[in-house]
Amino acid sequence: MKASNDRKRVREALQGWLAAPAARPVVRILEGKRPASEHPAFFKEEPRLILILEGTGRYLMIENGQEMIFDIAPGQALFLAPCTWSCPVPWMSYRSLAITFRQDFTRVTIHSRRAVRADGKIPWRYLAEWQTGETLGARGDHLLGLLTDATTPRIGERLFNTVAEMIVAEVAGLVEHGGELRRANDAILWHSLCDYISAHWSDPSLSRETVAQFFNRHPNHVSRFFHEHTKQNFRSYVNEIRLKRSLPFLRDLRYNVTDVASLCGFTDLQYFIRCFRKRFGLTPGEYRKRRVDSPDLSP
User: Could you tell me the residue range of the domain that residue 58 belongs to?
Assistant: First the structure.
């Protein structure tokens, strides 16, 4: 079966990275706190490994409870543990490859980011997108577990670099031999829309218009697409994601309700409370009290 152009681009990028492994250590982000930054901070539940292919990527992260700026050099890797935030603040254009490890498939994307603009926006676009229904299995879970380990051994940097190279080599094998998930054009667009929203749901500027602009579609086309696939409008779909994501924050007493609303992309506290009550039948404050009094209750 002939390989797609995206598959070829991903394969070449992985092989190029493996041919010249970085001498600089893997940067690991293990804390699930959101940086208090004016720039958009993106949250994903799955572990990710980001390889810098060209240029230098700059990220604002949380380490040991403190905000830190990390410059990730060409050839270097950035590992984000499950349920962590990333806040790119590039001072120059760069190109990177991201591997997302999900329970039912593995996804690899190559994208470019330009330097952050004066208005805080960061222009970026996909250069390639490839995925397979295969995963790294138990061996991959073990390797990812080593990268997630918070207890750094004496040979930590060497170990983490070796583990990252092993993971990339395993993914390169999937790209070389694994079955490629092929979808119709509408399915590709729908998957891309969902993935974009899963990375940007916490950004208060996320809207039907910003999504349409990114995908070079008319806003009405985006609206029709969401209604066709979900029987919901765009705002309802995004609000459902934000409301579900608000639950663990409400269970964390370090955040007040206003903080939770902001963390989840709501700019109007009263609107957040109304939406929450409509969805779950009680206010955020009532939900928090109920969970504190009876922690075994669901949701």
Answer: 5-177
Confidence at residue 27, expressed as pLDDT on a 0 to 100 scale:
93
* Whether residue 236 is found in the same domain as residue 145: no
**Structure-block tokens of residue 48:** 């990710």
Is residue 299 one of the residues assigned to a domain? no
- Alpha helices (H) along the chain: 5-19, 137-148, 156-177, 185-200, 208-214, 219-230, 234-251, 257-263, 269-280, 284-293
pLDDT of residue 294: 65
pLDDT band at 1 (very low <50, low <70, confident <90, very high): very low
Residues 172 and 196 in one domain: no
Same structural domain for residues 56 and 153? yes
Please name the residue that has the structure tokens 């060497």.
158
Q: 278 and 195 in one domain?
A: yes
Question: Do 142 and 41 reside in the same domain of the chain?
Answer: yes
- Do 150 and 234 belong to one domain? no
Separation of CA 189 from chain center? 18
* Beta-strand relationship, 27-29 and 77-80: parallel
SS3 262: helix
Domain end residue (candidates: 161, 177, 193): 177
Highest mean pLDDT among 103-112, 206-215, 226-235, 276-285: 276-285
8 Å CB contact between 121 and 184: no
Would you say residue 262 has pLDDT above 70? yes
Q: Please tell me the distance from the alpha carbon of residue 55 to that of residue 217, in angstroms, as a whole number.
A: 29
CB atoms within 10 A of CB 274: 12
Of 40, 37, 168, 196, the residue nearest 108 (C-alpha): 168
Q: What is the pTM of this model?
A: 0.74
3-state secondary structure of 81: coil
pLDDT interval class at 99 (50, 70, 90): very high
